[in-house]
Amino acid sequence: MVEYGQKYQNTGGMSSLRLAMSKTAVLIGGPVGGYLAYRNFNISTSVCMAMMLLLMFVYIFTLKEIEVTKGSSDIWADIKKQFHILSHSKVLLFTGVLVLLWKLSPGFQTPLWFHQTSSLHFSSSFIGILYSVMAATGIIGAIIYGKMCKWINLRRLLYIGVIIDALDSLVFLFYEDEMSAIIISTLTGISSILCVLPLYDLAARATPKRSESLGYALIFSVWNFADAISDMLGSSLYDNYNLGFNELVWINTFTTAAILFLIPILPKWITKYTDL
Question: I need a labelling partner for 7 at 20 to 30 A (CA). Which of 39, 77, 210, 240 fits?
Answer without folding.
Answer: 77
